[in-house]
Amino acid sequence: MLHSKISVSSQVHRLSLPAKVLFTWMIAHGDDEGRLKGDIDTVRGLIVPLMGWSVKKVHSYVLELKEQGLIYYWKENNEWFIEFVKWTDYQYIQKDRFKRSTLPKYHKDSVSNLDTDRIQADNTSSPQAKLSEMKLKEIKISEANTENKPSQNNENNLVDPRTFKPSNEGEVAAWEAWNQLEHTNLMAFKVTYLTALSKGLPAEKFYQFVSEIKQDNTINNPGAVFNNKVQAYLKNKEDRP
C-alpha cells in the first residue's frame, strides 16, 4: 500500500524519475516484513519487465534508492537482498494474515553491503542476464495487438524460448515467467507457461505467481508450484457465480 506521504518525501523527490517508478512498484513486491530478493535479473524481471531497461540501468536505479536511504541493499551467503528501511512506518498487516519473511533481516555488519557497485557489475555479464536483455530488446508490443493469447503458430509445435518473439503482453509475461523459474527447461516454456496463457491466465498473474515463488526459499520445483497456482486460480475463477 502506498502512503500519501510518498508525494512529499524529500528522499523520493531527489530520485530520478525511473528510480521513483522502480521504488513505488517495488513496494507491491515486498513480503510482509518488507524484504525481497535483490539480484538485478529478478528485480528487473518481476518489477519492471516491460520497461525495456537494461540490467545496468536497473542496477543504477537500485543504487539510487540505497543512497537516498530508502532501502537496505546487501549480499549475504552469495545472494542479494533488499529491505525497505521504513516498511513498518507505512505498512500494516493484520495479525491473522501476517507471514514471517523467509529472507534474512538486514544488519549493519551484513557482508558486502558496501561493495554493490563492483559485485553487481560483474553479474551483468552473466549468460542469463545477456539472454534476458536481448529478449527485452526484441519485444515490441503493438497497441493494436494486446490480446493476451498465444499466437496460433505456437499451438501445434514445440516452441524454443531462446528464439521466441512475443507478439502481445501475455506472451511477454509467459516468457518472463519461464525465464525466471525454469530457464534451463526449454520444453517447459510451451507445456507450462504458454499453456497457462492459452487457458486464460492474465499477464499480471504470471508476475504475481513468479514473485511469490521467488520469495519462498523452501520451493525446490518452481515449475510445479507455478502449475498448482495456475490450476487454483482457474478453478477459483470457474467457481465464481
Structural topology:
Blueprint: H1 10-13, H2 17-27, E1 35-37, H3 40-47, H4 55-67, E2 71-76, E3 79-84, H5 87-90, H6 116-123, H7 127-138, H8 169-181, H9 186-198, H10 203-215, H11 222-239
Antiparallel strand pairs: 1-3, 2-3
How does this structure look, described?
The protein is 49% helix and 6% strand. It is mainly alpha-helical and 241 residues long. It folds into two domains: 4-123, Orthogonal Bundle (Arc Repressor Mutant, subunit A); 139-239, no CATH class. It has a three-stranded antiparallel β-sheet with strand order 1-3-2, covered by helices on one side. The longest helix is centred in the C-terminal third of the chain and has 18 residues, at 222-239. The protein is globular and about 50 Å long.
- Specify the structural class: mainly alpha
Largest sheet: 3 strands, antiparallel
CATH architecture tag of the largest domain: Orthogonal Bundle
Secondary-structure element string: HHEHHEEHHHHHHH
pLDDT averaged over residues: 78
- Rounded to an integer, what's the Rg over CA atoms? 18 Å
CATH class of the largest domain: Mainly Alpha
Query: How do the strands of the widest beta sheet line up side by side?
Result: 1-3-2
Q: What number of structural domains do the residues give?
A: 2
Distance between the termini: 29 Å
Which fold does the CATH topology of the largest domain refer to?
Answer: Arc Repressor Mutant, subunit A
